[in-house]
């Protein structure tokens, strides 16, 4: 059911990279609140990958914002509808609840939100299951300049019932690299 989210997660062997190579960029802004505390991204690694799964084109966007204190917020969006075209994400709202997204035989669109205490310690992650709350809205995507903007909100959970983190925020003119 969530095959596209899982398969695209492993799509690291890309044929072609454009717009800067590594996904590192310094333009754009990323601000959020994490359980009421301000979070501001200071470095970014953003990628948009298009691959084929079960004969269906799939796009996966990862926005990775790291704050000066080393904490990280990662936004992941999987797009199936219209994924065969262009080097941008479809302007739309994508939900953590996969039943609210477009679906076909290859899988579901959707999001995963991740909060990390440092570059290796995951504090919480959303689980894409029916009835779960959270969304990422892509409000604009500029293919020419490889930049996108939007908003997000979700609550993470941890395996074993640890701390939950409520995260809301915006990203504006975030650059990304495209690979296929």
Q: Can you walk me through this structure?
A:
The structure is a single chain. This protein is mainly β. The chain has one domain. It has one helix and 15 strands, in the order αβββββββββββββββ. Strands 1, 2, 3, 4, 5, 6, 7, 10, 11, 12, 13, 14 and 15 form a 13-stranded mixed beta sheet that branches. β5 (56-67) and β6 (72-79) form a beta hairpin. It is globular, with a radius of gyration of 15 Å. The chain starts with a helix and ends with a strand.
Strand content: over 45%
Query: What's the pLDDT, averaged over the residues?
Result: 82
Biggest sheet character: 13 strands, mixed
Q: How does the helix and strand content classify structurally?
A: mainly beta
Number of strands: 15
Using only C-alpha atoms, the radius of gyration works out to 15 Å
Which overall shape is indicated by the principal axes computed on the Cα atoms? globular
Q: Summarize the amount of helix as a percent range.
A: under 10%
What's the quick description here?
Helices cover 4% and strands 54% of the residues. The chain is mainly beta. It has one domain (3-179).
Annotate the secondary structure layout.
Elements: H1 3-9, E1 17-18, E2 24-25, E3 29-34, E4 37-53, E5 56-67, E6 72-79, E7 92-95, E8 103-104, E9 107-108, E10 110-116, E11 122-125, E12 135-142, E13 147-156, E14 165-175, E15 177-179
Parallel strand pairs: 4-15
Antiparallel strand pairs: 1-15, 2-4, 3-4, 3-14, 4-5, 5-6, 6-10, 7-12, 8-9, 10-11, 12-13, 13-14
């Amino acid at each position: 059911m969530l095959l596209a989210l899982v398969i695209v997660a492993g799509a690291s062997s890309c044929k072609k990279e454009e717009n800067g190579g590594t996904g590192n960029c310094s333009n754009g802004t990323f601000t959020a609140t994490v359980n009421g505390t301000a979070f501001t991204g200071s470095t970014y690694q953003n990628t948009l990958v298009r691959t084929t799964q079960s004969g269906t084109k799939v796009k996966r966007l990862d926005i990775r914002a790291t704050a000066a204190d080393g904490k990280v917020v990662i936004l992941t969006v999987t797009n199936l509808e219209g994924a065969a075209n262009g080097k941008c994400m479809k302007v739309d709202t994508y939900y953590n609840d996969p039943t609210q997204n477009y679906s076909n035989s290859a899988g579901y669109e959707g999001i995963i939100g991740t909060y990390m205490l440092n570059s290796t310690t995951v504090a919480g992650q959303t689980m894409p299951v029916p009835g779960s709350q959270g969304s990422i809205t892509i409000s604009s995507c500029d293919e020419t300049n490889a930049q996108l903007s939007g908003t997000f909100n979700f609550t993470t959970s941890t395996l074993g019932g640890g701390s939950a983190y409520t995260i809301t925020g915006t990203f504006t003119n975030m650059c990304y690299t495209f690979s296929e």
